[in-house]
Amino acid sequence: MSLMSIQSENPVGPAEIVRDFDGIAERLRQIGVQFERWEADCEFEAEADQQTVLSAYAKPLERLKTMYGFQSADVISLGQDHPQKELLRAKFLDEHTHSDFEVRFFVEGRGLFYLHPDETVYGVLCEQGDLISVPAGVKHWFDMGENPHLKCIRLFTTPEGWVADFTGSGISASFPTLEPFVQAFA
Question: What pTM, to 2 d.p., does this model score?
Answer without folding.
Answer: 0.93
